[in-house]
Specification:
The structure holds two protein chains of two kinds. In chain A, 29% of the residues are buried. Chain A is mainly alpha-helical. Chain A has helices spanning 7-15, 20-41, 44-61, 71-89, 95-99, 118-137, 140-150, 156-163, 167-185. Chain A is globular, with a radius of gyration of 19 Å. Chain A folds into two domains: 1-98, RNA polymerase sigma factor, region 2, helix turn helix motif (Rna Polymerase Sigma Factor, Chain: A); 117-189, Winged helix-like DNA-binding domain superfamily/Winged helix DNA-binding domain (Arc Repressor Mutant, subunit A, Orthogonal Bundle), CATH 1.10.10. Chain B is mainly α. Chain B has twelve helices and two strands; from the N terminus they run ααααααααααββαα. Chain B has helices at residues 3-14, 20-32, 34-51, 61-82, 86-93, 95-107, 111-116, 125-132, 137-153, 161-164, 178-186, 201-209, and strands at 166-168, 174-177. Chain B has a two-stranded antiparallel sheet with strand order 1-2. In chain B, helix 1 (3-14) packs parallel to helix 3 and helix 6 (95-107) packs across helix 12 (201-209). The longest helix of chain B is centred in the middle third of the chain and has 22 residues, at 61-82. The relative contact order of chain B is 0.10. Classes of the chains: A mainly alpha, B mainly alpha. Chain A binds chain B through residues 19, 23, 26-27, 30-31, 34-35, 38-39, 42, 44, 47-48, 51-52, 55-56, 59-60, 108-111, 127-128, 131-132, 134-135, 146, 149-151, 156, 171, 174-175, 178-179, 181-182, 185-186, 188-192, 194, 196, and chain B through 11-12, 14-15, 17, 35, 38-39, 41-43, 45-47, 49-58, 62-63, 66-67, 69-71, 73-74, 77.
Chain lengths: 196, 210
């Protein structure tokens, strides 16, 4: 079996003019970058567009990459920054559209899904829409912090560096986001209908 | 700890960011207060639900399309970066450059369109925004110069997005569309004979002035 070539060697090959080395990096990391983009856009087409923009930026910057960090750290940092920029400057209203669109296979959108009976499927679909709507309704700064924390699993310090804010501000945005999500998802939370 | 304070600190607690001593006091309160305990569960459940959505992936074949598009755009941008400013070209190429730009823009108009469509100018905000998506500042300056010259010559009416977006050969066949065509129009020294077949500019101009 062919041994996997280290990222750094691929970057060096690209810097020497071997464009094919970029293709290998793209194939290696496209899925992971797409996942980041999808978390921010919740839409396949937008996420693909963002992935393309991110890799185009990488293609243009790779020639001057200085190896001060690993390639993938730099790539994911670039991806996250690009997605945050997207979120702040392009508010795409997808929720209304998605509500009118039949979902081809909503159940596989949930981790550990089994095949549920029809009534449960309808409930799950309703819940999926509610969750997407709740996330979409968060202000960009709260949304980006929530995504970085709970989808990307980053520490507050890392998030603060990425979004260019103090840790206190990141915390405040995160807590506001959590409260708002709880509020919006209360009808779907067990025993949540009761007044608190 | 009172409920008001407990509710205030709950998000910090469920995120696991609270100091152990402070967390112990909050936990003590939660054991004795069903209302706050319910709110704690609601916050945890909201995070769990919001984090539970899986990613929907595109079909495999779309990845290769994305890669091709990246190469194409990178190549175009690299070429564009190497192109000398048309402002410097004009004194060198003089009238020939002006005629080429003008004629390619004019080439986007058919006689039928000129007569039947209420035209928007290329400097209308929507057309500008469309062009600005992929033409750099230099290109936009070139476009403005071309427009001024074309207007001054009274050579044609203004253009719509669709007309700017398509360049036609003399016979009416589309020779280039979209970004590629517009970039060629704005950077005429890149258009080489044979790129789009033979372009007979005098014939094209004559047909437009009929």
């Amino acid at each position: 079996m062919k041994e996997r070539e280290p990222d750094e060697l691929l970057v060096k090959r690209f810097q020497k003019g071997e464009i094919e080395a970029f293709d290998e990096l793209f194939r290696r990391y496209r899925r992971r970058v797409y996942e980041i983009a999808y978390r921010f856009t919740r839409n396949v087409d937008d996420a693909l567009d963002l992935t393309q923009e991110i890799f185009l930026k990488v293609f243009k910057s790779l020639g001057t990459f200085k190896f001060q960090s690993s390639f993938y750290t730099w790539l994911f940092s670039t991806a996250r920054n690009y997605c945050i920029d997207y979120l702040r400057h392009r508010r795409v209203k997808r929720v209304e559209l998605q509500e009118n669109m039949p979902s081809s296979s909503p159940d596989y959108l949930f981790r550990g899904a089994r095949v549920p009976p029809p009534s449960e499927r309808i409930e799950r679909e309703e819940l999926r829409k509610a969750i997407e709507k709740a996330i979409e309704s968060l202000p960009p700064k709260q949304r980006e912090v929530f995504i970085l924390r709970h989808y990307e699993g980053l520490q507050l310090k890392e998030i603060a560096e990425i979004v260019g804010k103090r840790i206190g501000t990141v915390k405040a945005n995160l807590f506001h986001a959590t409260r708002k999500l709880a509020e919006m998802l209360r009808p779907y939370i067990e025993g949540g209908e009761d007044e608190v | 700890m009172r409920c008001e304070k407990a509710l205030k600190f709950l998000p910090e607690y469920v995120e696991g960011l609270m100091k152990p001593s402070k967390a112990a006091k909050l936990e003590e309160h939660l054991r004795s207060c069903p209302r706050c305990a319910r709110e704690e569960r609601a916050l945890r459940e909201a995070i769990r639900l919001a984090s539970s959505l899986e990613v929907e992936y595109p079909p495999e074949e779309r990845w290769e399309e994305v890669l091709r598009e990246i190469h194409l755009r990178a190549e175009m941008e690299a070429v564009r970066a190497e192109v000398p400013a048309i402002r410097r070209l004009i004194p060198i190429a003089g009238f020939a450059a002006l005629i080429l730009i003008g004629s390619i823009l004019l080439g986007s108009l058919s006689v039928h369109l000129l007569r039947s469509i209420p035209l928007a100018r290329t400097h209308a905000p929507d057309v500008r925004a469309f062009l600005a998506g992929f033409i750099d500042e230099e290109g936009m300056r070139n476009l403005r110069e071309a427009e001024e010259m074309i207007d001054a010559e009274g050579m044609a009416g203004p253009f719509t997005i669709e007309q700017v977006d398509q360049l036609y050969q003399p016979g009416g066949e589309v020779m280039a569309t979209g970004e590629e065509g517009i970039i060629d129009a704005l950077y005429p020294d890149l258009v080489k004979p044979g790129d789009y077949g033979e372009i007979d500019l005098p014939v094209k101009l004559a047909s437009l002035s009929d």
